[in-house]
Each structure stands twice: as structure tokens, then as C-alpha cells.
Design a protein that fits this description.
heterodimer; A: 108 residues; mainly beta; seven-stranded mixed β-sheet; B: 116 residues; six-stranded mixed β-sheet; 10 strands; 0% helix; 49% strand
Chain lengths: 108, 116
């Protein structure tokens, strides 16, 4: 099973600033099969990024993903009030999918 | 538009079983598989497994093998997840989602509470 580690656990950011979230895999994720999700309290997760860097339908371009192998990054260029949430990475290169523990982005 | 609508909240006793449904609309049901994910209170997301609607093939998380069964009914565009021998640590919100790789559409979630 591929174990995903996310850092930091919590990121405090002021609106309008940028944020960089990290996701590290215990072994290489084949073909960059990595996705990012956003989850707000009481809501289902929402797909942001798949294939490490492809934005899902309707996702603003302030969200971008990068990385390959074992190291992946989600960057939010300028945080809007609605971006404060928990972000999860998920790998689908292995038949047994796994999620990272999440990074909470809160208001500084 | 694509929608996944799940059944309502459940309260079960330890040792019982629960069956959660997920009814899809807005796309050809057999075209995409269904994944199940759960989230314990205040915790992260846990992948439970998926089922191919097309041929019924399943892939379950090792931790749930033997206790979980995923099925579909193409006549009603509904997927089901049954979890048996419930324990207190099965208390969680259970989500269905479309696709087996990344999940592009999600149900609203079903809270399953297991009490002793």
C-alpha cells in the first residue's frame, strides 16, 4: 500500500496570500496518478486536480498542481475566502487507492 | 447534471449490518464505476473500494475484506455498500463517488452510527 504524507498539517494564511501544500508518497506514484480534493465542513470532498496537474471542470486557475514520482504540490496562488478548507491528496496508481491525512488551510 | 443521491442516516447496534444506497442520474450508469469512501468523525478520508458497474468486478480495501460487499442494480441506477459485523469504529460518514481512479462526483454522504 502506498502511504501518503501531507505537510504541513495546518497552514495559516491571510486572504490574498498564496499557499503551497505538499504530498509525499512512500513509493513512486505511477504515471503521476495523483489527485487533490478540497473539503469544507459538512460537505463532500470536491475534486480539484487529477493527473497531478490537470484542473477538474470548473476549478479556478488559482489552483495548480505539480510534481511526479514521490513528491507532489498543490499551489493556491491567491486565497479567496471560500478556499479555507481541508485539502487531501489521493493516489490512484496502485490498485488499492489511498488518501493523505489532509492539510487544513485556515485564516491567519 | 450528474447527481449521486444517498440514503438517509442509520443507527445500528454493534454486530449488525448496514446497507447504504447511492442512486445516480445525469449520465449512463454503466459507463463509470462507483467508489466508496468513509470518514470517521473529525478524521480524514478512507478509501473502502470500488465496483465496476459494467461487469460487477470489485476491489476492496484490505482492512474491510470479508465484511464489505458492494453491488449495483442497473435497472435503478443504484449502487449499494453493505458492511457487516459493525463495530464502534465503523461510525462514519459514508460517501459514494463516481469513477475508480479519481472521484469526480460525490454523493452527499450517509452518517452511520454504531452504538453498543
Amino acid at each position: 500500500e502506498i502511504v501518503l504524507t501531507q505537510s504541513p498539517g495546518t497552514l495559516s494564511v491571510s486572504p490574498g496570500e498564496g499557499a503551497t501544500l505538499s504530498c509525499r508518497a512512500s513509493q513512486s506514484v505511477s504515471s503521476s496518478y495523483l489527485a487533490w480534493y478540497q473539503q469544507k465542513p459538512g460537505q463532500a470532498p470536491r475534486l480539484l486536480i487529477y493527473g497531478a496537474s490537470t484542473r477538474a471542470t470548473g476549478i479556478p486557475d488559482r489552483f495548480s498542481g505539480s510534481g511526479s514520482g514521490t513528491d507532489f504540490t498543490l499551489t493556491i496562488s491567491r486565497l479567496e475566502p471560500e478556499d479555507f478548507a481541508v485539502y487531501y491528496c489521493q493516489q490512484y496508481g496502485d490498485s488499492r487507492r489511498t488518501f493523505g491525512p489532509g492539510t487544513k488551510v485556515d485564516i491567519k | 447534471q450528474v447527481r449521486l443521491v444517498q440514503s438517509g442516516a442509520e443507527v445500528k447496534k454493534s454486530g449488525a449490518s448496514v446497507k447504504v444506497s447511492c442512486t445516480a442520474s445525469g449520465y449512463p450508469f454503466a459507463t463509470y464505476s462507483i467508489t466508496w469512501v468513509r470518514q470517521a468523525p473529525g478524521q480524514g478520508l478512507e478509501w473502502m473500494g470500488w465496483i465496476s458497474v459494467y461487469n460487477g468486478i470489485t476491489n476492496y480495501a484490505q482492512s474491510l475484506q470479508g465484511r464489505v460487499t458492494m453491488t449495483t442494480d442497473t435497472s435503478t441506477s443504484t449502487a449499494y455498500m453493505e458492511l457487516r459485523s459493525l463495530r464502534s469504529d465503523d461510525t462514519a460518514v459514508y460517501y459514494c463517488a463516481r469513477r475508480t481512479d479519481f472521484a469526480d462526483y460525490w454523493g452527499q454522504g450517509t452518517l452511520v452510527t454504531v452504538s453498543s
